[in-house]
Amino acid sequence: MNKTILVTGASRGIGKAIALRLAKDGYDIVLHCRSKIEDAQAVAEQIKELGRGVRILQFDLSDRAQACTILEQDIEDFGAYFGVVCNAGVARDNAFPAMPGEEWDEVLRTNLDGFYNVLHPVIMPMIRRRKPGRIVTMSSVSGEMGNRGQVNYSAAKAGIIGATKALSVELAKRKITVNCVAPGIIETDMTEHLPLEEALKMVPMQRAGSTSEVAGTVSFLMSEDAAYITRQVISVNGGMF
C-alpha cells in the first residue's frame, strides 16, 4: 500500500489506539508526540512488529513555527502524507468564573490553533499528490453539546467542527475527504479524574467507550469504503444525544 498517515498525540490513549489500528490496516505511520518520547517509542516498536514503517516527530502543536518547520522537513525527506489524524489535545477543566486566562489560552492554542499548525503545512503537498487523501479531526461530545466546567475545551472542540466542515468544502474536488470524530466518555487517562458513575447516567448504553471503538471509526473513515463521505461529524458516544 505504501500510504503514510500522520497521527498527532499518538503516544497514548486514543491516539495510540488509532496509530496501531491504522498500522494493522496496512498504513505506514508517522507518530507525533509533544513530550512523552519514551511512550511514542514503545508504540513505534509495536508498529514495527506489525511490519509497517514508522517514524516519530516531536513538537509542540501550539508552536506554529516549530510545527511548520518539522512537518515541512519530514515531507521534504519522505513525501506527502496520504492521511492525517488530528488527535492531540489537552483539557484544563474549571468553572468559568474561576478559570485563569492561561487555562483558556493553553486549551485554545493546543486544540484549535493546533488544527491550523498541523494541517496548513501538509495540505498543499497532499493536493500536489493528485490522488485521494483523508483527513480526520478529533472533536468531542463537549464540542457538540457543551459541558459544565469545560467552557474552554467546548469552545475549542466546537471550533474544530466548524473548521473541519469548512476545509472539507475546499478539498472535496481534490478527492481529499475531511471528517470529524466526536468521542463521548472514553476510558483514557484524560477521563480518570471524572466521576464516571455519575457521568454514565447520561449515556443510554450505560458504559464508557473504548479507545479501540474510536480507532475503528477512524479506520473506516480512512478506508476506500468512506471515499464518498466528507464534511461529517461522527459521534462515538453511546447515544448521549
Automatic annotation (TrEMBL):
Pfam families assigned: adh_short
Cited CDD domains: BKR_SDR_c
Annotated Ketoreductase domain residues: 3-188
Annotated Gene3D superfamilies: NAD(P)-binding Rossmann-like Domain
InterPro entries registered for this protein in UniProt: FabG-rel (IPR011285), KR_dom (IPR057326), NAD(P)-bd_dom_sf (IPR036291), SDR (IPR050259), SDR_fam (IPR002347)
Source organism superkingdom: Bacteria
Keywords, in A-Z order: Oxidoreductase
GO molecular function, a single term: oxidoreductase activity
Protein family: Belongs to the short-chain dehydrogenases/reductases (SDR) family.
Protein name from the UniProt record: 3-oxoacyl-(Acyl-carrier-protein) reductase, putative
Organism from which the protein derives: Marinomonas sp. (strain MWYL1)
Taxonomic lineage from the root: Bacteria, Pseudomonadati, Pseudomonadota, Gammaproteobacteria, Oceanospirillales
